[in-house]
Write a structure and sequence with these properties.
The protein has about 300 residues and is α/β, with parallel strands linked by helices. It has one domain: TIM Barrel (Alpha-Beta Barrel). The chain has helices at about 5-25, 45-55, 70-75, 110-125, 215-230, 250-265, 275-280, and strands spanning about 30-40, 60-65, 80-85, 90-95, 130-135, 155-160, 170, 180, 195, 200-205, 240-245, 270-275, 305. α2 links the parallel β1 (about 30-40) and β2. The longest helix has 22 residues, at about 5-25. The radius of gyration is 20 Å and the shape is globular.
Length: about 300
Amino acid sequence: MPAGRTTAAIESGWAALEAELHVWAPTSRTAAFWWRDDDAVTWTSALERLLELAEDTPIGLAVIPGKAQAELAQTLAVLDTVTVIQHGWRHTNHGTEQQKSEFGCARPLCERLAELAAGRERLKTLFGSRAVAVLVPPWNQIGEDLIPLLTSIGFRGLSRGTIAPCRRRATLPIIGILWRPADRRRRAAKPAPGLHQVNVHVDLIDWGGRRGFIGETEALSIILRHLKDRRLHRVDSDEPIGVVTHHLVQDVATEHFLRRLVATVRRHPAARFVPIPELFPAPSVNSARCQLPIPPPPTYAREGRSDGEGRR
């Protein structure tokens, strides 16, 4: 597409976003967003750039506890807008290459609980009260058998992901129809008693392609769709729209988009970024659940495949 037409399409997308927010204004409702950034381990120039462009916008930083370094905790100690949440244990793939997972059903339940509990303690030791008990499972995958037990090891929140961008479709053999996985629309705000679920819906990375920015027009299209769905109550209208970034693989185009999105949301009276503790409120003393005794993390004879940082 010629540069002039591309620029026109982008500006049309931003104008459509402004127009949608104007529709929200008379309803006395707020178009709520939240920001999650994944795969943090230590302080890097990429993370520094991300937090600089965010300014005072609240961010949930998903830290890999088994790899987290003290330098990250020391730097974040003075950044009040950053809340640390837990990104699994070591971001190790115990699934298959086609279905990556660190906490799927393939391993014994006690092993998975032990690792999550160890990760929770590690983050509390490093980050203190800045670490909120919210689990972000690597690759957004978690065994359903684990979810009802998360509160027993201290978790109060769960955040998973959404589908890949709309253009990624596959043709099923034999029947020859176009198929796309369904959106991960949360079926319940609390998938288990005492556990708040708030997902992300807009992943800015093109994981199935060149691993760069998905593009402004596509990102804006996804955001607009989610805004309209919430305004018209087609989905859970109380769930904020989650934007997920990955600072380690973020490019200049992504940073440009984020700056403009942050500026647009901050200046509009009908929109805001929600602080992470507000999304995942602490349980009251009376509703606190008894915690089950969890054994220490097992020592494995061999590790699974570790795909490290910069991955979903």
